[in-house]
Every structure is written in structure tokens, then in C-alpha cells.
Here is the input.
Amino acid sequence: MVYNGTLVSAGKGGALLVWELTRQPTLLGVLNGHSLPSAIYEIMDDLIISTDEHNVRVWNLASGDYLQIFVGHNGGAGGALLNGKSLVTSDKHGLVKFGDLEKE
Here is the structure.
């Protein structure tokens, strides 16, 4: 997923790779935290929303820190949508959860 000249891609072991897109793409950092393969669902306002089998994480793109974790999916956390300061997540079993995002 691309945001403002930055590419975020999924790597091995659940890591997220952050790249600067220039003529010579540069790896800016590796975001670790997911223990399982993850997916990137949204990049907005310098935040990255990513999921794995059970959790949804919110990352700060500039610092590489993860800000929040939303737990409680029983498998296949498969969707995430950021709407202002609210985060909506879903899983393959049809469970939809709502959470409040605490920006730093």
C-alpha cells in the first residue's frame, strides 16, 4: 500500500516493511509485532492499520512505533477501516468490533 511517497509491504514472519519510493527505493524500517503473516488495510494520516489472525494493530508511520492493539477476533481478522478516531474491524466469522483510536 502506498501513502505519500512511502510504500508499506508485508514481509516474512508478520513483519511490515516500510520503503521510501524514489528512483532507488530505500528500506526505512521494519515494523515487528505480528507473530503471523499480516495484511495492511489502510494508511491514513501517518497511521498504518494492519491485521493478523487475531489482532489489529495501529502503527505510527513516522516513528515506526505501534500505538494500539485491538484484540478479540477468534480467527481471520480480515478487515479494518479507520473513520476519524474510530476503528471498525471484522473477521471471517462475521464478528464486527468498534474501537476508539488514541492518537499520540
